[in-house]
Amino acid sequence: MPKSTRPEPAWEGMGTPVKRTSRDIRTANRYEVLRQIIAESPTSRQELAAATGLSLATVATLVGELLELRMITEVGFEDSAGGRPRGLVAVNSSGGALIGVDIAETYVHVELFDLGLNVLARAEEDVRAGESLPEQVVGHVAAAVGSVVTQAGIEGARVLGVGVSVPGQVDRATGTSEYAPNWDWHDVPLLNLLTEHIAYPLYLDNPLRASAVAELWFGAARGRGDAVVVNLGTGVGAGLVLGGGLHRGVSNSAGEWGHTTMVLDGRLCRCGNHGCVETYVGARGIMLNLREIGPDSALLHPDDQTATIDALARGLAADDPVARRAVHETARYLGAGVADLVNLFNPEIVVLSSWVARTLGEPLLHEVREAVARHALPRPLAATEIVLSPIPTDPVCLGAATFALEGALQTAGQRNGKRTTLARSTTPARSRTTASPS
Amino acid sequence: MPKSTRPEPAWEGMGTPVKRTSRDIRTANRYEVLRQIIAESPTSRQELAAATGLSLATVATLVGELLELRMITEVGFEDSAGGRPRGLVAVNSSGGALIGVDIAETYVHVELFDLGLNVLARAEEDVRAGESLPEQVVGHVAAAVGSVVTQAGIEGARVLGVGVSVPGQVDRATGTSEYAPNWDWHDVPLLNLLTEHIAYPLYLDNPLRASAVAELWFGAARGRGDAVVVNLGTGVGAGLVLGGGLHRGVSNSAGEWGHTTMVLDGRLCRCGNHGCVETYVGARGIMLNLREIGPDSALLHPDDQTATIDALARGLAADDPVARRAVHETARYLGAGVADLVNLFNPEIVVLSSWVARTLGEPLLHEVREAVARHALPRPLAATEIVLSPIPTDPVCLGAATFALEGALQTAGQRNGKRTTLARSTTPARSRTTASPS
């Protein structure tokens, strides 16, 4: 029974206190300084203060902490005009490795990164249509994680953590896949299953939030207060960066834009509803748009989303009229849906991410911008940029690895005896496993 | 030309820094402590620490500041079991007066409050259909503000400020009504016009944000991290409380839920688009729903929204089948739209506010809860309560007066020589006029 059937609270005295502490700020600022160092190494404390807006004293303290954690190193001095030489710091790339796992409906991508978030190794496994058991998917993940560690030739002890993204609704505190519509998973204890094969600290979340964190740390949302990262793949959603941090909602399920209603009583969605955004702009929805326009089109590969979207992209490049109309129609839906996000959130930037956006690229972006301009209100429209994700690799792998980086920062802080309250952090307190490295 | 047509930023080095400081936290905590004292006076520092989750030392400092501002007073001691007697504080109700102005499409409501936010006087002016000039509306506001000050019999010098809510898109920094669709206002310098008649500090914003702030300080969102306040009137919108504070967006225009698309290519909206939520659940939309069900119904008062909604409420009470079907149909639309908000924000609570929600009350709430349960995803649905606003007076007046209260807290802080950075505050730095009290 949903809580919504509970009686209303009384006029006074209800609710739980929302505690914000200086430690929350400190954690956010520590992330911000590390982000900036990763983006521009080597750099000085003075440059960091200018780039982040923090005071030099605060930056100096945070840099000291990151040095102590061996995440960055001192790399010499630069002359300052007439003043004392300024100490330079840089990411300590070899200080550890991070692994990002992108479990999607049709594949498992795994990438291993150094601390500068450069890719050192990659592995990919296909997930075939029949493979819907959690154990089958976990097997692919374990094989690919083993492969990247071997390829990179690093010691297991240097792997600081593995971030895992799985589609659908995730309880990150318990490491459970609560609902994954593609495989009809309900309450699968995915983190426990993975722990049997993977002996590194594990962090579970979903592609929406992984993409959003990737843009926040390394992409188009870096330094932005309010950004929306629109994920266009088989599933569709909107990762929310609000007030400079990831907005998770009260039970880590915010951002389900793919399951908002755009056409009341419209197409049936796999969530059971009708007219959801996903049924018009997800990969399957785009296939339906194409089928309505050209039922016999050679672009259509029934039962193969990737082949169809690839064919559409080639058709656009060749000025195929059916491809153009299918993308125009998709952009009409997408423009209305993105305009909804612009009107609701009034963000600085909307980033189009994931494989469908990457494959259809600039032609899709151009049409979407025109459609959004027709739908959005003038004031929020004027304040919003719409861009393709500038991240050249898989943003979900990158974001998942970033969850592991945040987790390592947090557990290191705890080991230092600094107990932190991280209500607004993007990292769970519980999901660090106690396994020893293999 | 919208910014969305600008080229994308490069991979690195873009964006402006998001600066968060301890002062932001301090301001938020000062609001939180004052909120709690207003809700429960008298109270002790120990009770405040327990209720807010702040440390006793922090509470003691903040209470000291509020005492210095004469917003609260010491009112004696209570025994603590075996320990030292605890000092009690209470709101200093007579420490000043606040005025809230609710400019709506059909009326101007004005209320004068003491510092405990108790209503001391009210005035109302009708805005007739022909009165669409800014000067006419300003005249009504000036008359009603004069009336409440006279009625309350207080000295002008004790009025700390006047919060003014006007429908549509507002630039609060310049005090401009950028766009008010009902009167087709564009870039009306409303604050300047009001300053010619009203000699108190003025704060301009819109009903979405006023309602949200009223719920945050005094209603169902108090102490909640994430809440959505759904405003159902002639216009429709969603005030957003995220991370314990008001989410304004990058240009103070977040929350335009009324202008998100629910039925692509559906009813024409006054914003120029088709199928907006407002055209199905705003007062005019409900009239259309009623007309579709019972074109000759006696419930329908063409050209009179208030009379029609009142008639619908009486029809519900009398079990009139046309009224029941019209409200059922309205709740079907509203349920889909509220489910979108639940899926996107994953809030703790959704509050139905404004005059349409108040008039249709429990029967509407009941139907909406059932419709939301059909549309929302299980995980966010399970975490969300849906309630009617518990605020017994006009929430927009109360919220507008709260903007004036926040402004008074802020300007007092500045007079004390504490220059504050209020990036996440709900109060503009600029809109305090320098007029002397009348």
TrEMBL record, chains A, B:
Source species, domain of life: Bacteria
Region (Disordered): 412-438
Biased composition (Low complexity): 419-438
Signal peptide (UniProt feature, chain positions): none
InterPro entries tied to this protein: ATPase_NBD, ROK, ROK_cs, WH-like_DNA-bd_sf, WH_DNA-bd_sf
PANTHER family assigned: BIFUNCTIONAL UDP-N-ACETYLGLUCOSAMINE 2-EPIMERASE_N-ACETYLMANNOSAMINE KINASE (PTHR18964:SF149), ROK (REPRESSOR, ORF, KINASE) FAMILY (PTHR18964)
Family per record: Belongs to the ROK (NagC/XylR) family.
Protein name: ROK-family transcriptional regulator
Lineage: Bacteria, Bacillati, Actinomycetota, Actinomycetes, Kitasatosporales
